[in-house]
Each structure stands twice: as C-alpha cells, then as structure tokens.
C-alpha cells in the first residue's frame, strides 16, 4: 500500500520510538525481579519515547502544535493543526512486562482527526488510517466485525483501580455487560482496544476517565473501518466527557443502553 507523505512521517516517528521501546521492554522484563523494580526505568522510557516522537514530528511539520501526555499542550504557529500523542498507551502493562501497549499518534485539523497511527512495537502491529481512505493493519484493509447482537459480542472495558473514581458505577456497568454480552475483557490500552474493534477482534469497547491522547488515533481507526464511536451519552463529545463507546452500526445503540441501564 502506497502511503501519503503525511502518513510516512507519522509511521516513521512511531517506528523510531518503537525501536527504543522494544529495547527498553527487554530491560523491564529483567527489572521485574529486582528489588528496586522497573518503575523509574519505565518513566524514563516513556519520556524518551515522547521526546523522539516530538522531535521527529516537529522536524517534519515545524508549525504544528501538540497535545501530549507528558508535555501537555504545545502551541504551534499553525493553529489549525496539532498532533495528539501518547508515547506509551498501556504504561501499567509495560511496567509489568506485559507486551500489550502502543504508541498512539493522531493529527487533528480544524478540530477533526484526519490521520492516525497506533503501533505495538513488541508484536510489530501497525494500525493506520487517513480520513476517507480507510483503516489498515500492516497494510491490510480493516473492517469492523458484523455481529448483530451484544449477546454474541466480545466487549473490552476499562476497570477503575486505586485512585480512580466511580468504582460503584463501573461495577454496575460490568454487571450489565456480563448479563448482555458474549464475553468481557480488560486489555489496559484504550488505543489498542479501539484498534482491535477496527480489526474485528473486539465487537465493542467501553472506556471512561480517559484523555484525548488515549483515544484520538483509535477512534479514527474505528470510523475508517466502518464502525461508530460516541461518548457514553451517545453524543460526539468524547474528549469533553472523557468517555467513549465503539461498536458497529448494529451494536452501538444497544451498547449505549446497556452501559447506562440503572443510571
């Protein structure tokens, strides 16, 4: 598949950061058994990956702004464009040497996501999309799964842990989903959750208390693979509410009703 110049820039930045993260991941596996543990090392790896991506994207498009997990908002001369970047989406997995995490890069133009890359460097899985051009997995065209009923579907959702709000609400939603779906998973990476909906691995995703950099690229992948995304209220305010639902056209309404049952 021939990629655009823009997509080549994004893939190149993700690949360069991914090579370093893959090396660091090997060190994390060794540090798991040390007394100190891998925490400090992982924080450094996260920051260095973000710097690599920032440097690569800034060099290619010097006027674009950024929204990044560590650096926050970085204004650019071109106010109509900004990169939205999570250098390691799934940091807790990385910390525990679980090879399910991803680099997430999205380009926002005039408030709309127009290009996306999600890359798992350990599995060497690359997901890409440009607006109106479809979504791809390692250059193979993606389509969301075509299941018609939640009872047949596999759903991934976020489960709040220590320090995260609304454990009671999440428990209620989990009970509702358990009673109305074919299976439940909690992967630990919103970017991969959404990429896997685009790839047909998951039928639906429910994520709450998330940031734009966790979902910007993934939601673009779902839409370009023929799926639908909304916030938990069925609206198009995922960044504002910090929530996202994703599924195919047949399941998205049922998913919304299920997670909101009893509210």
From TrEMBL:
GO annotation, biological process = inositol metabolic process; signal transduction
The reply on keyword Hydrolase is: yes
**MF terms (GO), sorted A to Z:** inositol monophosphate 1-phosphatase activity; metal ion binding
Q: What CDD domains would the database entry show?
A: IMPase
InterPro entries given in the database record: IMPase (IPR033942), Inositol_monoP_metal-BS (IPR020583), Inositol_monophosphatase-like (IPR000760), Inositol_monophosphatase_SuhB (IPR022337)
Tell me the residue numbers annotated for binding Mg(2+).
Answer: 69, 86, 89
Enzyme Commission code: 3.1.3.25
SUPFAM superfamilies in the cross-refs: Carbohydrate phosphatase (SSF56655)
From which domain of life does this come?
Answer: Bacteria
What catalytic reaction does the record list?
A: a myo-inositol phosphate + H2O = myo-inositol + phosphate
Keywords tagged on the record = Hydrolase, Magnesium, Metal-binding
Q: Which PROSITE patterns match?
A: IMP_1
Cofactors that this protein relies on:
Mg(2+)
Q: Per the similarity annotation, which family is this?
A: Belongs to the inositol monophosphatase superfamily.
Q: What is this protein called?
A: Inositol-1-monophosphatase
| Species of origin | Notoacmeibacter marinus
Lineage, uppermost ranks: Bacteria, Pseudomonadati, Pseudomonadota, Alphaproteobacteria, Hyphomicrobiales
């Amino acid at each position: 598949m021939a990629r655009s110049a823009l997509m080549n820039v994004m893939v190149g930045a993700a690949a360069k950061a991914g090579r370093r993260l893959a090396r660091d991941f090997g060190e994390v596996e060794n540090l798991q058994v040390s007394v100190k543990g891998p925490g400090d090392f992982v924080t450094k790896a996260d920051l260095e990956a973000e710097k690599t991506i920032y440097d690569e994207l800034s060099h290619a498009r010097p006027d674009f702004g950024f929204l990044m997990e560590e650096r926050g908002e970085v204004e650019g001369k071109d106010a109509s464009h900004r990169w939205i970047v999570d250098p390691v989406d799934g940091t807790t997995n990385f910390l525990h040497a679980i090879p399910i995490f991803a680099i997430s890069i999205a380009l926002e133009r005039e408030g709309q996501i127009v290009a996306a890359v999600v890359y798992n460097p350990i599995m060497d899985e690359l997901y890409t999309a440009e607006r109106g051009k479809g979504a791809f997995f390692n250059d193979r065209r993606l389509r969301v799964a075509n299941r018609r009923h939640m009872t047949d579907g596999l759903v991934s959702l976020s489960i709040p842990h220590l320090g995260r709000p609304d454990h009671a609400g999440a428990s209620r939603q989990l009970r509702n989903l358990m009673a109305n779906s074919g299976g439940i998973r909690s992967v630990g990476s919103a970017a991969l959750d959404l990429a896997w909906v685009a790839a047909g691995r998951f039928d639906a995703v429910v994520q709450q208390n998330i940031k734009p950099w966790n979902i910007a690229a993934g939601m673009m992948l779902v839409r370009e693979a023929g799926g639908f995304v909304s916030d938990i209220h069925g609206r198009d305010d995922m960044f504002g509410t910090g929530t996202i639902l994703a599924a195919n056209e047949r399941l998205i309404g049922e998913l919304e009703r299920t997670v909101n049952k009893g509210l």
